[in-house]
Amino acid sequence: MELVAGSYEQVLFGFTVRREPATSGDRETWTPVADFTHHAHTASLSAVAANSRFVVTGSKDETIHIYDMKKKIEHGALVHHSGTITCLKFYGSRHLISGAEDGLICVWDAKKWECLKSIKAHKGHVTFLSIHPSGKLALSVGTDKTLRTWNLVEGRSAFIKNIKQNAHIVEWSPSGEKYIVVVLNKVDVYQLDTAAVSGTITNGKRISAVTFLSDSILAVAGDEEVVRFFDCNSLVCLCEFKAHENRVKDILSFEIPDHHVLVTASNDGFIKMWALKQNKKDPPSLLCEVNTGARLTCLGVWLDRATDDKASLPPATEPSPEQPKTIKKEPGDMIQEEKTPGPKSKKSDVTGDSKEPAKGNNSPVSAKKRKMTGVLEKKRKKKM
């Protein structure tokens, strides 16, 4: 198990979590041990995602970096997007979906690291996306004040809903029977069968991150020190607890045998792991914490599992022999190709050689050189 967190300081931190069995009268101890720091990006990190093999990071420097966690090496970078990478989501072991300020959603083959599809998803920025548990649908929100549903089986837009303000988070529940949309400090709960709002949750301050603890219970973090658990059916706050000394930037949860764990990261530099109680009205207990000394922005957990439960997205996401990396626009489809030279003129595939992440605070000089070369190449192409 490895905690990974990105920061404003452009550094990716990795911590291996060691679990010591309980001794007589004591409980099991969890200890995070520094594994690596890596300084590959030239701007602050904005997104992290992990599957059973890889960790990927997105940044304001417009690139996505790939790390092979099995071999502990850097696997290269993806440079298809222009603008900040705003969201990264793995679906199983085979696909990665990315969104960025260029309005594009890209589907990547997570084996060959080829861009299978590039969808002009929003007129403004893509601010967040979420994949349905079935892999057949995806939701995205953007600065064009729309919530868009994507049919991944047919590879086209299925539904567009105008919303009054710019939403910055969208998330499916574990069962996929409901989803939530976050605008500022409010969470609108939607039912899939009606596509209508069944209720609204109001948090204390602007919401920075959410994660479902169960199909009806949502953990909410915002621009404050506390984390709150809300019931999506009754809309009431079940409990709240002080998690950090500064605003909480990201949270996530996962289940392993005998444990349901919540992880939080904050601007105060700490990553904390919490053991959730069966009754979510009870605050969780702290398992362990580590101080990175940096202002954290995003968080991920890599679990060393043999395979993912979800193998891949539906076949429609596979490239056709005629058009290996783009979608042909069919009558009535909402998917559009870029008409101006831009993201498509950039190399979509993985770039760079594999390099080991640096132990300690020093990053490989060769990685920096590759990075700067990629940035200069992008600038040159933009001018053209």
Question: Could you provide a short overview of the structure?
Answer:
The protein is mostly beta strands and 384 residues long. The protein is 5% helix and 47% strand.
| Spatial ordering of strands, largest sheet | 3-2-1-28
Oligomer: single chain
Task: Please provide the ordered H/E string of secondary-structure elements.
Answer: EEEEEEEEEEEEEEEEEEEEEEEEEEEEH
User: Which whole number gives the mean pLDDT?
Assistant: 81
Main location: nucleus
Biased composition (Basic residues): 367-384
Biased composition (Basic and acidic residues): 325-358
Keywords: Nucleus, Repeat, Ribosome biogenesis, Signal transduction inhibitor, WD repeat
Task: Give a verbal description of the structure.
By secondary structure, the chain is mainly beta. Helix content is 5%, strand content 47%. The chain has 1 helix and 28 strands. It has a 4-stranded antiparallel β-sheet with strand order 3-2-1-28, with no helix packed on it. Strands 4-5-6-7 form a 4-stranded antiparallel β-sheet, with no helix packed on it. The N and C termini lie far apart (45 Å).
Write the layout of secondary structure elements.
Layout: E1 2-7, E2 12-20, E3 29-38, E4 45-50, E5 54-59, E6 64-68, E7 73-78, E8 85-91, E9 95-100, E10 104-109, E11 115-120, E12 126-131, E13 137-142, E14 146-151, E15 156-162, E16 169-172, E17 178-183, E18 186-191, E19 196-202, E20 207-212, E21 217-222, E22 226-231, E23 237-242, E24 248-256, E25 259-266, E26 270-275, E27 285-291, E28 296-302, H1 365-383
Antiparallel strand pairs: 1-2, 1-28, 2-3, 4-5, 5-6, 6-7, 8-9, 9-10, 10-11, 12-13, 13-14, 14-15, 16-17, 17-18, 18-19, 20-21, 21-22, 22-23, 24-25, 25-26, 26-27
